[in-house]
Amino acid sequence: MIETGRIVIAGAGLGALYAALELAPRPVLVISPETLGEGASSAWAQGGVAAAMANHDTPEAHAADTLQAGAGTVDPEVAAMVTKVAREHIIDLTELGTPFDRDADGNYVMSREAAHSAARVVRVKGDQAGDQIMQTLIAAVHAAPSVQVLENTQALRLETEGATVTGIWITRADAPSAPVLIKTPGVLLAGGGSGGLYAHTTNPPRIRGQVIGFAARAGARIADPEFVQFHPTAFDIGEDPAPLATEALRGDGAVLINSAGERFMLAEHPDAELAPRDIVARAIFAETQGGRRPMLDTREALGAEVLTRFPTVAETCARAGIDPVRNPIPVAVAAHYHMGGVEAGMQGRTSLANLWVCGEASSTGLHGANRLASNGLLEALVYARNAAQNMGRLNLPEEANEIHPAFPEGGQGLDPAAVKSLRQTMTAHAGVRRTAAGLKQALAAIARLEAEQASDENFINMCATATLIAAAALQREESRGGHFSDDFPEADPAQAHRTRITLDEALAIRAKVQEELT
After folding, report:
1. Which segments in the chain show pLDDT lower than 50?
2. Which residues on adjacent β-strands are paired with residue 357?
3. β-pair type (2-3, 180-183)
4. Under a CB-based contact definition with an 8 Å cutoff, are residues 179 and 156 in contact?
5. 157, 277, 371, 423: which is the annotated catalytic residue?
6. In the annotation, is 277 catalytic?
7. CB-hemisphere CA count at 13 Å for 369?
8. Do residues 313 and 249 touch, judged by C-beta distance below 8 A?
């Protein structure tokens, strides 16, 4: 056991680093599973940050779009708060050195994305916002003497006394080891979402719901776990994770066609390619299921400009042998963002004392049933600052020694076959389209895998989050946002509310399903 006066931040993405800088000069320990900046979902975000920066736009319009996209379950007070402060976070990032795209007059270049009523997404080099913001924050963290980063380590579980978090267990991420307990005055969870629980995902390989899972295992209340957003346009080129064809392409006029050359979104929604993501995702999924390979066509809208304005997309195309100037890009639906997570109040506080959460591991009420494009990075920024300011009220020392844990031998690596089976189960039964029968099969399969891998705590964390997703989806007998049920294809006004569930409640649902199936 190691005792420290440092706040421990589990995760090393945008929210984690922004919070660490906000807490300065208070001492902080950042737990990073890889070299800082690698493997973070934030760094992979292409679209940008949504903020009402243009003269023609307002925070109120941004909030209204957020409410509309969220399909009836967005918390309006949260939406108003987040959109109101969005501008100041863009300015702060600019002052830190983030090279946002600007025009000749110095104005921010704004892009329009799906379900936005105006162009309000601030970008960097077209499609490199996440990476560039992360590089800016990494440089600032390296220059901050109050921040210690432990690379190649990962959080495994929380230590609690009653409903109070008193520490966090960590282990090596690059090799099997026994865990070490760090006693700390406070923990901030900022370790990403759950996309990697699915077989086709845009998320980095490590992002498989572990943080949400171990928080749930400690008793933290979870909100909206059934709402998983599937990005409509991931590259369908056989890579895992699937590279992203940013939504900004469609914002700039790219269209979706199938193998017959038909522009199929025109019949699906008045906004066609710029319809909310869940609608576009289901339409693309239907084309795939029907054997009509869906493709993103940038030829007429962008022509050769796609190569210079969207360098990440151009690089992926080159790697796959695709010339987007002459040919459309094959795309498929992929798990992209989890609207659910550890329930967080306005200040990022969870249901457990001394535990805060920000970013995709959280569920704040901003996204509702379907996240508005590019609100993800914004939410991470806002709640990282809110949580840091709230954590600053703890009785923290002005300085604290660095810690250098010696990990004992022990532990085990993940079983690749078990992980593959879990991911295939989630895609088959808790994915874009769901049925009660399929969700019950998923719960039974998760229980079996969990029992088979009972000694692997990392895998148990994944199974906890998978159980929460499937159990909550089974309970929601309607279709709304990122949750679509073939059994209940219409939205039920009586169910226009957020889900709040504990792991114990989800496990009880799972146990009941197991009884039914035996």
Report:
1. none
2. 189
3. parallel
4. yes
5. 277
6. yes
7. 23
8. yes
